[in-house]
Design brief:
transport; alpha/beta; 2 domains; Elongation Factor Tu (Ef-tu), domain 3; flavoprotein; binds FE2/S2 (inorganic) cluster
Amino acid sequence: MYPITFKRDVSEDYFLLGIEAKHLTNFQPGQYAILQTTELSERIPLSILRVENDRVEFLVQKRGKSTLELYHSTEIFYVAGPLGKPFPLGVYGKVYMYGIDWGPASLYSVAKALKSLDNKVYLFVSGKYPPLEIVEDAFDKVSLSFEMPKDADLVVVAGKASELKDFVESLKGYPCIALSTAPILCGVGLCLSCRVYSEGKERLSCTDGPWFEASSLDWQSLTLRENLYVEEESLALEEYLKELRRRALREATS
Ligand code: FES
């Protein structure tokens, strides 16, 4: 078991989570971990935000049964990682990053590393993004709306593919790296749930990604794949919320 050593609500939708997991402390920017709250829980792939004094931190959006279970827990059954290929760091110049909803949490470690290499890093957010004071130190400037890059040397996007697809298509001419949102379950190339098509070839988001050159991705199939378990997730959430209500009622009447 891995103890949760820190948990803080940062908004209605987001919480900061700190865990003791020594094997994650040497993560590289852009890598993720898989957390499984109990033996019966689903595995959750989460971008590693940072390491503070041996505490590994994640910025988590409460958006389903698994993340709510994590929110209510004091320890975690299984933690795997660091997983995935690190982001291709370099001296690019001006880097424009676009994050929808939880996107800024995945962009944070990459932005911090790029900034330390003297790149100018700008963040544009939309949707239900996390409180910006948690992530803004990694960026030179944060904007509350998507603007087309004017002079970007690199564009990086993270968020739901269905919402980013048109934007990415409009970026023609700008080199762009995107975070795959295909469902990652095993993280080690066994279950094939995270398949995407890149340059016409099948690639695994968990081990070949999660970062891919955006123009090489088949966004149509990625959009379909990211919604593969939407129905099951919504049923699981419904059941979990019922269970929480039952628990609250038992506590109130005991
Ligand atoms: S998550 Fe199982 S193969 Fe990629």
